Amino acid sequence: MKNIILINTPTIPCPGSHYFTSSKFCRGFKYNGLNFLELNKIDDSISQYNTRDNIFLISNHFISYGGIDDIYKLGQLLPDAYFICWHFNFEKQLINDMPFKKFVITGEHYFNTPTSSDRHIEAHNFAKSCKEWEPFIFSSDINPEQVGLFTRNIIYDSCFIGYPYKSEWTSSLSNSYVFNSNGFFMPEENRISIYLSSRVCLGFHSDANIANSCVVERVFEGMSYGCAVISDNKAATEYTNNIVKYVNSYDEVVSYINFYKQNNNEYIKSQQEGYEFIKQKGTYYHLSQNFINKLKYLYE
Q: The sheet that has 245-246: what strands, in order across it?
């Protein structure tokens, strides 16, 4: 395998924040020695990639963009290539008439049975019984060899970057850097700078992700850049063996922020435990290895 290829075209798009997640995932393959390419059009020239050297990443967002015909065209032009199919577990038509010969299906990993909707429960049950399923565990976009090597200069007691979850909490915190995206995205170098300038990362989630036990990227990003991390999602605490601390109220948030501010030894302990977790399994380098191994197991 030589190339990881992200498809992002008008009919098979990778929109919004999903583009950033997909790009980070692809960089995990790059850390494993693959080239990272992005394709922005589908025509017959794509047949040049019809070899076992190539892995394509596609998202089910094409369902809303009229891309179903192009998906089957890809399958016809690329019978020898591999495909990673994001959230096909939600698409019964595609499951019953899969366009590709060599594929894995992936999507948000639920550490426990989801409860947000019957549709999520169905998708979860399908995944458990599908031999081509490989869970997508959100991770940090960092080379494991660089974990713990960045210079930190604490300016903020805490930080939150993302869609405005728990805004009633974050808006009341003092000396906290809060960036509520609402469709606007912070440049990656700025995000990293904020993590490196903060003692505590606020790993807050949507209500649906909490109900589905789905842990998002900011938890692992905070750990990878040296923050102590607190979260409103119990699954984050369970998965990290209590490195990430669970909070259920504004008062608990303030209490943990003050605790890490006043007890530097406990902060350093949390930081070092976070670094070790990230080095062992918390990056897209690790996640991409899971997919490479799964494709080899299924098709080689």
A: 176-180, 156-162, 198-203, 228-231, 245-246
Rounded Cα distance, 222 and 138, in Å: 13
Residues 6+ away with beta carbon under 8 Å from 110: 120, 124, 212, 213, 214
CATH match for 144-281 among 3.40.50.1980, 3.40.50.2000, 3.30.470.20, 3.40.50.1820: 3.40.50.2000
pTM for this predicted structure: 0.95
Q: What is the pLDDT of residues 278-296, one digit of tens each?
A: 999 999 999 999 999 999 9
Residue-level pLDDT at 202: 98
Separation of alpha carbons 233 and 215, rounded Å: 7
% of the chain with per-residue pLDDT over 90: 92
Find the mean pLDDT for residues 136-141.
98
Domain boundaries, given as residue ranges, for the chain: 3-139+284-299, 144-281
Residue 277 to residue 269: CA distance in whole angstroms = 12
C-alpha triplet 110, 64, 88: angle, nearest 5° = 35
Integer angstrom CA distances of residue 137 from 31, 68, 100, 257: 17, 27, 23, 27
Residue 39 scores a pLDDT above 80: yes
Q: What is the pLDDT of residues 193-240, one digit of tens each?
A: 999 999 999 999 999 999 999 999 999 999 999 999 999 999 999 999
